[in-house]
Amino acid sequence: MTTVTVWGGSSSTDWHTAANWTNGVPTTSLIASIPSAPSNQPNMSSDGTAHALQLDSGATLTGGSNITLYITGESAGETDAPPNGMAVNLDGAISGELSLNITTNATTSVDLNPTSGDVHDLTLASTGTSLIINSENTCTLTGDLTITKGKFNANSNNLSVAGTITVNSVAGGDAEIDIGDVVADCAKIAVESGDTITAAHSSNALTVDGNGIGTGRSIDFTGIISGTLDIICTHPNTTEADLAASSGVINHLTLNHASLVMKMNSSATLGKLTITAGEFSTVDSSGNSKDLTVTGEVSIAGTLTGNASAITIGKMLEITNGGTYNETSGTTLISGQPDGDYVLRNHDGGTYTKHTTGILKIARTSAAGTKYAKFGEDVYNDLILENTSSSSAVAIVGVMNLAGDLTVVEGELRSYGGTGAIDVDGHVSIESGGKFSTETSQLAAGGVNADFGSLTIASGGEYSATPLTTTLTGKNGSNYMLQNSGTFTHNKGTVRFEADTSSGTWYATSASNVEANSIKFYNLETVRTGSAGSYRFFVGGNSFYLVVLNNLTIGVNTSIYSSNGTSILRHYGPCFNIEGAAAFDNVKDVECGFITIGSAGELEFNDGDQTINCTGIRNLRGAAGISA
Q1: E strands within 448-566?
Q2: pTM across the whole model
Q3: Taking Cα atoms as reference points, which of 297, 256, 250, 296 lies closest to residue 280?
């Protein structure tokens, strides 16, 4: 049985005067019990020690600056006297500044919720390895919570620390804080190597407000995260954060202060990232880029700056009205299967700022079905679709504008919505297992226009064209504007060749010497840009086909020709309109509908042994001729 020394205050208010206590000044073997009756309530002018502390309702304990009371005992099994197995029980009031340092080597409880005032600093520094402190009430500290040895368990009670929570054992692995799913806050949180923070957040979070630490590091994790830890950072300044726990991850990190700029001290993985206000930047204070992986969703109402980092998002990237994503110069990867309908959702008023070398890559792993991508009105650089399932589709909602290239490696990219347009300044490459298509409902609704630099369809790839117009303005590395080794489905749409072909080698399209294997154009147009517009359609050898099922139009100041000796034109439509120059050099076999030669048009068949079959010719003061 531990002896209790009861405060009487018969001599003065001095804690350290033996006459003021029934059994002398509290020590490691004496429990300090302070009742409310004495008119002289105790005042600590220097550090003190007690086995345990009982402060009754109506009593007041006064401390001073940098004054600490060391508690050395009272385990949960010691119930023979107040505080009945508790190390500290504050039913009364705290006046001034008083700190507690608990060195008990046992499981114990504390009630640190005085009727007025608060404990300043709380330190857990057990002399052994068995200290577990269970908080029995709301705990509010005006200073710091420091755990160097032992475990603090919030025990379903809220925790508020005006200063820093530090979990840092000397040997490593001997310090832990468990906040469960309570409302908790602090200015800074630091969990060092080997030590642990445990949480079970589902409705609450740990708020880190940065008060009083200026531009210092507000989150410092090199230790272990156990369970589900959510953090809301309301730091009002630029701060660096070490988010890379040695084990476990922050489940959900939220930034919510307009003046907050959080920089990464090291590469890190998060469960979910929400930027309600402020900026999250993937660089450290020296400007070195750090990689960021978010296994869940990223939602941006503030700013995310990617710098030169590799950024991986596990489910969805959402940019809400007023939010900005400054794209990394590397790759932004969206992988996995989103919980909702979207893998990318750039709302009206959101901003995706492209980088000239940036790549947006959507790679839904092991995911069938259709998810949506809303690109908004912004211009992106390169886009790669690389789903691991050919039955996985990404549908474009609204417009899509790329300043760079589009590559569909695996899976389907589908235009959807009926009101947008697809604009790719660079090259469109559809690889084996990839497909670019138009939503079935759009075929009846009229579809969207698609503007590409060039279009390459590999063997096993498929381009299901828009029923409106696909315009090609550039060429790929093999000099083709349209190179097809896969499947081209016209959907009664128009393919329009529109380029300046005055310099270099330009091939309008690849061809086959088997008509059934050739591209079936429904409507085909050629248009001049720049100083010349000559389009070579017959490439690769003898008896290659150009097949047009409906209308064929040769625009003003353009020409369509062949450099191969026995090429074949099959035009099955009603109208062959020549507003430019159709020069069929050495095209041996021409079968077409009604030819209309405009006033600036020119039709030339420059080989005497050609076979020409047409429905008729209408010459509107153009030129027509056949030369041997």
Answers
A1: 450-457, 462-464, 469-472, 480-484, 487-489, 494-499, 507-509, 520-521, 523-528, 534-538, 545-548, 552-554, 559-562
A2: 0.91
A3: 256
